[in-house]
Amino acid sequence: PPGRLVAPSLEEGFFTEVLSHTADEGFEVVAADRADLLAAAAEALAAVIVDPASVRPAELLAVRLDAADLDDEARLVGFLSECLYAFDGDRFAAHRVAVLRDDDAVVAAVLGEPLDESRHRVRTAVKAVTWHELHVGPDPRGLRARVILDL
Predict the structure, then answer these.
(1) Count of other CB atoms within 10 angstroms of residue 113
(2) Which of 4, 63, 73, 143 could connect to 108 by a Cys-Cys bridge, CB 3.0–4.6 Å?
């Protein structure tokens, strides 16, 4: 009936406490150029999920990102998000990644095989590639990127 409380706890109010915990993992990669930086970052992402030493290079999977007008940070987050979808959504374990094209689109070939949890050493699940502390910039050896993942 109108006026009746949905739950008695609403009369007492709510209590919220922020708990600190680490649900993130990150990595840095360095490469001579942007294409190799993207490939190295994709391999690092894959290695967070599954030990690449347990993955056979048996099949190729294509990953593509429309990247026209994207700056380096947006290109990296977008590309890694597409890779994460392939690794997680398509249940594909990656061994190596090669970026074949890096202009108005990023096109990569991922060498690996379908995920087999009885054979592959699965490390953790990754929820998302984040913008937190994201950085792409020059390095004496070419380019450096820092990426934080939400686990």
Answers:
(1) 17
(2) 63
pTM recorded for the entire structure: 0.84
Angstrom distance (rounded) from CA 39 to CA 45:
10
Number of helices and strands in the chain (H, E) = 3, 7
The dihedrals phi and psi of 135, each to the nearest 5 degrees, come to -150, 135
Helix, coil or strand: residue 33: coil
Give the total residue count for the chain. 151
What kind and span of H or E run contains 27? strand 24-31
**Tokens of residue 123, six digits:** 């490390």
137-150 pLDDT, tens per residue? Answer: 999 999 999 999 99
